[in-house]
Amino acid sequence: MSEGLLPLKTRGLCFAVREKQIIDQIDLTISGNDITVILGPNGAGKSVLLRLLHGFLEPSAGQVKWGGRDIDEDLRKRQVLVFQRPVMMRRSVADNIRFVLSLRRFSDRQERLEKALDLAGLKAQANQPAPRLSGGEQQRLAIAQAMVLDPEVVILDEPSSNLDPGATMAIERLIEVAQNEGKKIILVTHDLGQAKRVGNEIIFMHRGRIVEQGSCDNFFTDPKTPEAGAYLDGALLV
Amino acid sequence: MQEFNTSFAIAADLIFSAKPELLEIVMLSLRVTLSAVAIACAIGFPLGGMLAVARFPGRGALILLFNTLMGLPPVVVGLLVYMMLSNAGPLGFLQLLYTPAAMIIAQAVLITPLIIALTCQVIGSLFLEYEEQFKALVVPPKTAAAALLWDARYGLMTTALAGFGRAVAEVGAVIIVGGNIAHVTRVMTTAIALETSKGELALALALGFVLLCLAMGVNACVLAVRAIGEKRAYV
Q1: Domain tally for chain A?
Q2: Do B233 and A131 count as a contact with CB atoms less than 8 A apart?
Q3: What number of other Cβ atoms are within 10 A of residue A7's Cβ?
Q4: Interacting residues of B114 by C-beta distance below 8 A, sequence separation 6+
Q5: Looking at the partner chain, which of B130, B143, B233 has a beta carbon nearest the beta carbon of A87?
Q6: Which one of A48, A177, B66, B144 has the fewest CB atoms closer than 10 angstroms to its CB?
Q7: Sign of the four-CA dihedral B186, B190, B195, B198
């Protein structure tokens, strides 16, 4: 039995593009099987931080450790990153899921395929081309694809941006299912309502730094920093 | 101009009378060209795919080389293949010169760079689309390459079609290595060249129309398959 992925810790994490510091000296600890929401204005570095945590990007400096281990291929297979704009392969919905299933050694592929279609609510569209699905359907498919791999951690990058309330509700239902299955969820959003609805823990970012981290209730009722307070008041943070 | 008018009638007569001599030439043309296209695709698809996906020193130079070789003059290819297959050449022992096999080799050499360069472009643009997903899911390179080749299949059909177009219309290389021997290595283009040299311009032009019809038929088939793909949004 392999060691658990959590806690996830970063020390002095930095990411720079040319001279611009996108992520600046982040020390972070994430643990517990609940939903951690990374919140902040546009350009705060939320999505870059997610990519660094997943191992998708190499940090310029600092470390990311999952369960005390450096990121390697094995660790990356145990957590899944779902993008803001999911990539749909030029295949049917079912074949998109089959492709993902073919990447791991599962003996029950057919059952997993049916479960994923059911979860995404796309049984009726199983044989339709995935690129033709609506934005909400594509995002549901992407999350179901992630879930079918049985990851310990699901990392979601603004899964409901640009979606209507109905589609957002369906995404949040999927997140709830994932959490009920015992998966750790790390979710990036700049939607305060969504953060309130689904979050247990909030990490608030501004200008590439973590400004505040704490429970969802405390963050929304009693923000500790002026930046978080201003953000909650609807001020424009630049 | 008179030849131009009569050539239509001769072409129609050639097609509808289905003369055995013409059928023989048409069948050989198709056999040689389709075999060359199959060989070029077998080599060019994986190589072009690898060139699109892999990152290694000298990749840019290789892409430049294959792009340049797309304009390879057929007579130069014919000459090179002739030198390789002639009795004094390194492959002379195979005794392939003046056989359809030599013509297949020459056409395959001619169009393989074209297939590689176009495959690199087709797969390259699809790879840009899929790259993030492959990286996030830790997809092994071989699996990624196979998935890209499969998902780009309709684009690759057009690539193969471009190779077919170049090969079927080619005369310089096949006449050098094939020799235009009646009932052995005579294909449409070499037959046209022969009739022109004999002054039978109307017949030569008629053969040209037949060749055009052949190419159009193959194009129509591929475009139909592509259209089905587009309808299913897989292109």
Answers
A1: 1
A2: yes
A3: 14
A4: B40, B44, B69, B70, B162, B163, B166
A5: B130
A6: A177
A7: negative
Candidates A56, A72, A90, partner chain B, best to mutate (most B CBs within 10 A): A90
**CATH number, residue A66:** 3.40.50.300
ipTM for the complex shown? 0.86
pLDDT in tens, chain A (238 residues): 467 899 999 999 999 998 899 999 999 999 988 999 999 998 899 999 999 999 999 999 999 999 999 999 889 999 999 999 999 999 999 999 999 999 998 999 999 999 999 999 999 999 999 999 999 999 999 999 999 999 999 999 999 988 899 999 999 999 999 999 999 999 999 889 999 999 999 999 999 999 999 999 999 999 999 999 999 988 877 7
Query: Which chain B positions have a beta carbon within 8 Å of A91's beta carbon?
Result: 151, 234
Residue A238 forms part of a structural domain: no
What pLDDT, in 10s, does the model give residues B131-150? 999 999 999 888 998 999 99
Question: Of the candidates A208, A183, A199, A156, which has an alpha carbon nearest to the alpha carbon of residue A25?
Answer: A208
User: CA-CA distance, B70 to A138, in Å (whole number)?
Assistant: 40
Contact between A138 and A159 (Cβ < 8 Å): no
3-class SS of residue A157: strand
Task: Look at residue A139 and tell me if it is in a domain.
Answer: yes
Domains in chain B, CATH or no CATH each: 21-231 (1.10.3720.10)
